[in-house]
Amino acid sequence: MSTSDHVITSYAQAPARTVHAGGVTYAYRELGPKGGIPVVFFVHLAATLDNWDPRIVDPIARNRHVIAFDQRGVGASTGKVPDTIEEAADHAYEFIAALGFEKIDVFSFSMGGMIAQDLIVKHPDLVRKLVLTGTGPRGGKDIDKVVGVTYWDILRATLTRSDPKEFLFFDRNAVGKSAAKAFVKRLGERTVDRDQPIGIKAFRTQLKAIQKYGRSAPSDLSTFTQPTLIANGDHDRMVPSVLSEDLHSRIKGSELIIYPNSGHGGIFQYHEQFAPVAAAFLAD
């Protein structure tokens, strides 16, 4: 195999790219073998391209074309962060259309899962397969409390000089603390061409958008026809675990995995178990 045929399957080495649409520049990274339907990754609150766990991305990229992108106004993408989840879904559509794709699979986490749901409500034929992790439905009980939990955990993290994700995503027991440290370390595996962290104003705008989403009338998810995989930890303080059950009951034929003794970042804590399941689910 010549070097020109070499397929990058490591997220740490995925090239940084940009595409222009709607007067803004979207930053994205892509890896895996091209051709066929890509898997587009929808990231969480306050996250940039550097927030994806390579232990989740890499196993999927072995056999699939994977694309991760920065929302408008976040990381290396220009423009302004939208103040509703619905508008974020419009931007996601704009980004996907700019790349020329008419059909995608979606891997989403947390706020990314909310955006993905709004995207499918508006564009029901765009998404073939859907992975929803650490997320909940529009109007889901207590989603609007995410603001208080987030600020409290940021404070706790600041006082202990830790990454807020250690508090927000993982239980504060021995198992959780160890999983948290390992996760944060993995996020640092990419050493070149790293993304800009989100700004405070952009972060607050995203939080407000999630709050509005939590206080809105529910979407009709009974119309979703795509195979759907739902996963979470059993002790999610950010988007309560019961909302994964709620999604499962609303989306016909969906599969649900709840990992024990874990929080919002259950899929990262259990990446060895979850990544092969997600990769198999997303296999063509």
TrEMBL record:
SUPFAM superfamilies: alpha/beta-Hydrolases
Keyword Hydrolase: yes
InterPro entries found in the cross-reference section: AB_hydrolase (IPR050471), AB_hydrolase_1 (IPR000073), AB_hydrolase_fold (IPR029058)
Superkingdom of this protein's organism: Bacteria
Positions of the AB hydrolase-1 domain: 39-268
Keyword Membrane: no
Gene3D superfamilies noted in UniProt: alpha/beta hydrolase (3.40.50.1820)
One Pfam family linked to the record: Abhydrolase_1
GO molecular function term, any single one: hydrolase activity
Alphabetized UniProt keyword annotations: Hydrolase
Name the record gives this protein: Alpha/beta hydrolase
Organism of derivation: Nocardioides immobilis
